[in-house]
Amino acid sequence: MTGTVAQTAANTTPGVTTVNGRTDTTGVVGASVEAVAAEKATFTVSYDGKTADISIGGVKGGVGSAVNALDIKNWQDATITAVNADLEAKGITGVEAKFGADGKFQLIAKTAEAKTLAVSGKDAVALFGTNGVNTGVAEKSELNSTKTVDKFVELINRDHGTKVRASNDNGKLRIENLSTQGLDVGIDLNGNDAVVASKIEGNTVRANLSKQFNELRDQLDKLGDDASFNGINLLRGDKLKITFNESGTSSIDIQAKDANGNVRGINASNLGVESLIAEDLDTDEKIDAFLGKLSSALTELRSQASAFGSNLSSVENRQTFTKNMINTLETGAANLTLADTNEEAANLLALQTRQQLSSSALSMASQQDQAVLQLLR
């Protein structure tokens, strides 16, 4: 697969095509494609800090006049769908692939802000030229503000929004340093190009937030170290063995483990949550990256909590079963050894009555015998 593109300026890096992102035709990286079915071209697209590996197949028989126009159209549609899907899968949503009216394959930056679109890799030079492409100065959107101070505010926030934040403070330009480090600026107070050096102190709010985070991190680790019972602390990686029967053949081992099954404690270091320094909060990108680490740590914590919850469910089920078994055995033992007091009292009274009747009968019989002897005398 070969390709060419009109070049407006040479790039000092051979094999790499860069273009500042624009929405007009000067912000397009293009290549006319002529290929056969067996060939494939591969290259890498980089944009806004993300990269995607792209592979393009050719049209059967090339793109000459002998090739069916419908085959070319179908191939172009399939290529656009595949390339855009690869770009989107890698998070590159600000660039789209298309074919121009002249049949050239194009990579177009959608947004008007200046971002570098780079094409490199194995077949980048063959597709996009030997010296690369530079479309010149990026297009800037028109300012929405009309007042002078508001224009300054809009320009500063648009071009330097990651480092400072500007605002209109009752007709005065107010600049807030988002970084925790001091910021050196030059100010032309009189409009005569006499720049006066000034310094904006670092953002103390973000610096204090880093200190608060480190204090909370240490307190959570200490809380985990103190969460022990009978000398066993599951958060430190200790093993708790619970035996369910008298012979010891049924038991469960409860212990904190990672995704690979390795024993480990649950603390900030093992979860990848390191201490913060003030510079870690200088930009929103750094904060987002750290929040990503916290999100991963929370996911691991939830996974371990789920494992502990499963173990707890098993132990509670066995505890309920054991309690029911104890109640059954106690009821059986009571039936064998205990008696109904009312029933036994009645039996005792009956026996006493029988004893008294027997004694009375024996006494009466003895008295009758004595009476007969008296008559004989």
Helix content: 40-55%
- Oligomer, anyone? single chain
Overall geometry comes to: elongated
Strand content: 15-25%
Uncertain residue segments: 1-28, 31-38, 131-139
**What is the radius of gyration?**
44 Å
Order of helices and strands: EEEEHEEEHHEEEEHEEHH
Strand order of the largest sheet: 1-7-3-4
Helix/strand-derived category reads alpha+beta
How many strands, what sense, and barrel or not for the largest sheet? 4 strands, antiparallel
Mean pLDDT: 76
Number of helices: 6
How would you concisely characterize the structure shown here?
By secondary structure, the protein is an alpha+beta fold. The chain has helices at 69-89, 124-128, 148-160, 204-225, 284-337, 341-376, and strands at 17-20, 28-32, 40-47, 50-57, 95-99, 104-109, 116-120, 164-169, 172-177, 183-188, 195-200, 240-243, 251-254. The longest helix is centred in the C-terminal third of the chain and has 54 residues, at 284-337.
